[in-house]
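Protein folds are increasingly written down as discrete tokens. With that in mind, we are printing a sequence and the tokens encoding its fold.
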Amino acid sequence: MIIIIDEASEKLASFYYHDEIFKPQWKRAADMSSASDELHDEFQEKLQEKLPDELQEKLYGALLGKLLDELQKKLPDEQQNNLCVCEIENNSGYTESADNTAKANTGNLRIPKAPTDYIWIVSNRQQKQIADSLGIASVGEPQCGTRYAVESLAELDIEYLERVRRRYNHIPWDIGETDRCLIRELSLADLPALYELYDKPGMTDFVEPLYDYETELEYQKAYIENMYGFYEYGMWLVFSKETGKLIGRAGLEHNEMGYMIAPELWNQGYATEVCRFIIDYARENTDFEELYCRIDEKNTASVRLAKKLGFTNSGHMDDDIHASIYRKNIKNIKNNEKH
């Protein structure tokens, strides 16, 4: 991830951050910022000119190319690769390509050198407008007008910047991992693999099937934008670390937990493993006091799993789908409780 930062923001950052590991990242970013100052001025001049749309697009493209080139030339060759590039280790080891499978963790992954690499910590609205025109993710304090606003730079850390960069560029977030599984958000490129999963025997015995492709595509576009984008959780995808293949779905829709695992992996503990991760995630990252599941009593495997995880039948029914409501308190428990 390449962070663009100006002198004013760098001073604030150096004031807020005293962690010796984090400070050099800001310093490299600040070193980089002066390379773009002239480009900012040139871009703003041209931006105010009334050019036809097609010429403006060419201008933006040319300036973007120049910006990316200049930002990489600031240091000697041997240091360019380290210039403001934070090689963040993805918890789940996914690549950012639009394929339909996850790739097992291979260590630190370098983000491709493209506009999606960049995030700009802006200090005024002019910088925010330039970032928007260049298609670069930006974050700043409220007066800057960024979509991702923070009250102060004291709230920023590398993980937050990386998540903003991914959300802006429609790159699914890595949620986490278990011993055998990788869990991340769905992307539209995953739909073919999702249909393949749902087509397996028994997968839709107790869950609704997918819509036709075009309807499902539109539904998932809205889901990614509104559920992931607003709540920062939802129904995620589950991948096998060993094979990289999609093996299930699991996650949260508000305080309801849902899960499904490919039939060839039933009775091998995968659902238990993934659901325990989700319970921990909800406990640590949401304000929910409890989680609930809706389970058809005919689905004896899910009933057993719910009870194993500490859910109890509340005695209530969802008459629309003939399902019992199982609930589990996730906040008021002892720290050493094994769930």
